[in-house]
Design a protein that fits this description.
By secondary structure, the chain is an alpha+beta fold. It is built from five helices and eleven strands; from the N terminus they run αβββββββββββαααα. Strand 2 and strand 3 form a beta hairpin.
Length: about 300
Amino acid sequence: MKEYIGTIVIGIITLLIGAFIGYYVDIIKTQNQNKTRYIDVKIDNERGVLQAPDIVDDVEIIWNKTDIIKAISSITVRLYNFTDKDFEKVPVYIELIPTDDQEIKIIASNTVGENDLPDSINALKNIGKPSSEKIIKYGYEIDTLNRSDDLQYIFKATYLIKGNTLPNANVYIKKKGLKEQVFSIKHYQSDPTIKEVLLKALVVILLIGITVGYIYLLRWMLKIGQKRKIKLANEHALYIKSLIEDDNDNFTVNTNLSTDEVAKQITYELRMIGWNKLSKTDKWLMKSSMPKIDDVKFEK
């Protein structure tokens, strides 16, 4: 058991470092979950999509039985989710605000979700009154606001408007953790959330690599050091054995033990002198390197 103390200590250190890394990753995950994410809003206006006499020659388009239409314009609102998450039950509100005192007259409107499917969009009933009677307000709930792939919108609302005068469109999202922002291709190419996650993941991988490398380096150094110490101990034992066998008058040993056993014992005692000079901390750290009598082995 004692010879495995060093390995156990390294294992404990590894577990502590792993726990720290896990805690750090958990913090990153929590921060990313709670941070505000932005949905891109793209508004396209087209004045005079259809205009007499280009609508149909010699044919008048009459709206509301008496109102002759001479021009039709359009306004289209698209939403893109370039974040790292999908969202459910997202309420979206669109206000069409006149640019002059003229009343906005909507001829037709159409809303679709991802892949141009209308089933994922539900009209909201209680949307509240707009700040002005001339403002037209719409409210929708998107069942699932998936992440956009290949610049694909996940919501589109199109309004056909009588005349050549186009209103302004105000779009806002009412869901915790979500806000709207003006569409930009840069948001798709370099999403800051994804960049941040990748950078932090790289830091974690680097920490793990350094930890594993440190453990292997430490174990390799301990093995090399232990081998050197055992080699040196064998050299000392051989020298002591040669002194005993040469019947040197200055070095005599009275014992019933064999020459090999005496040499091993003396070598062990000499090594223990150096060991006992170490501090308690050093002894604890180098427990697996504590001298043993069996470290010395004579070739037969």
